[in-house]
Amino acid sequence: xxxxxxxxxxxxxxxxxxxxxxxxxxxxxxxxxxxxxxxxxxxxxxxxxxxxxxxxxxxxxxxxxxxxxxxxxxxxxxxxxxxxxxxxxxxxxxxxxxxxxxxxxxxxxxxxxxxxxxxxxxxxxxxxxxxxxxxxxxxxxxxxxxxxxxxxxxxxxxxxxxxxxxxxxxxxxxxxxxxxxxxxxxxxxxxxxxxxxxxxxxxxxxxxxxxxxxxxxxxxxxxxxxxxxxxxxxxxxxxxxxxxxxxxxxxxxxxxx
Length: 257
Description:
Elements lengths: L1 H19 L5 H10 L5 H5 L10 H24 L5 H30 L17 H8 L2 H19 L1 H24 L5 H17 L1 H6 L4 H13 L2 H4 L2 H14 L4
Helix pairs in contact: 4-5, 5-13, 7-8, 8-9, 8-13
C-alpha cells in the first residue's frame, strides 16, 4: 500500500509543482516537494501570498492530537484482545490518521506559517461541519480537495456543469482509493468507489430542493446528515480485507502490536 500511495502522491505532487514552479524560489520548491504534504502549490510557492496567522492555542491542539494518535496506535490497540483483530486494526488506523493528518501535518503547517509561508492546515476541523458539502469541500483533507479541484473539477465544470463535475470528483476519489486500499489488499474491489459514489449522491441530495425541505443544509440536522453519510458506510471504504491484510501487518512492523 505504502509504495502505491507514495508513487501516486509523488507524481501528483510533482504535477502541481510543475504548474506553479515559475513563481517559486528554489528553497520554496524544495520545501514544497520534500517538507509539506499539501497540494496547493500556488499558495505555498507564492512569496506574496500572506500566511494564515498562528494562534497560540493551535500549537497545543496539534500537539494533543499527535499524542492522542500515538496513544491509540501504540497503547490502546495492543490492549484489545487478539481475537478482536478488526477492532485492533480500526483503533490503530484511527490513531495513525490522528497522528499524521490531524497532528503532525498540523504542526508542519504551524512551522511554515510561523516562517511566513502560506500553508494552512490540511484538516480544518472537519467535525465542525454542518453539511456534507462543507465536510468534503472546505474541511476534510484540503490537500486532496485542492488537487481534485485543479485537475478534475475545473477542467470539467464548464463542459459538463458544476453538478456533474462535482460528482465525477467523487468517482475519481473512489478510483484513487481503490489503488491504495483494495489493490494492496487484493480484495474489496469496488467498495471504496461505492463509498465515494454515496458521498457524491449525498451532496447532490443535500443541495437539492429535497435537502432544503429536510433541513440538512446547515445546523444540527446538517451535522447529523454529514455524520451519517461519512461514518455510516466507512466499512466500505476501509473494508475488512484492507484492515487485516495491510493495516494489521503494518502495525506489527512499527511495533504497535
